[in-house]
Design brief:
Layout lengths: L43 E3 L2 E11 L4 E8 L8 H6 L3 E3 L2 E4 L4 E3 L7 H10 L2 E3 L4 H9 L12 H4 L9 E6 L1
Parallel strand pairs: 2-8, 6-7
Antiparallel strand pairs: 1-2, 2-3, 4-5, 6-8
Amino acid sequence: MIGRCRRTPRSLARISTRRTPPASQGAGSNYPNPRVEPPDHGIGRSRGGLSPEIHQLVDGNGLPLVTLITPGQAGDSPMFLPLMQQLRVGRDMERPRTRPDAVRGDKAYSSRAIRSHLRSRGIKAVIPEPDDQKGHRKRRGSRGGRPVGLDAVDYKNRNVIELPLDISIDS
């Protein structure tokens, strides 16, 4: 008996592109609310090994207002909204202030969700636009929207603290 060898053309062959699940790639926490996350989850894998990530909101003088500690693999921008929800600046004889005048942050905070949140609350965003976002906006032409207005003089005051994540708040 002569066997047949049927060869499938490469264009019709099914190429396996198996992806590993995001959790095995060092993705973020399964706890979207940091208040619910167990306290022993402050250590996670980052580039330098196992470490925590410290997220802080500080005032214009560098005094911490809100601090969150997350695993090292946690991103910066997903922690912005939980930090803003916990912001309470006490005042004499009045309720605490929860809406700052301006928020200064680095390019990690330049997302549509963060900018729209700040805009809806009437908070000035002093956050530069990354080059890839500029390219996407320009490529879309008139549908790409307006360029981000950045107060360069005010942005120079962002470096009042040096941590992996720093957002300055002017109140």
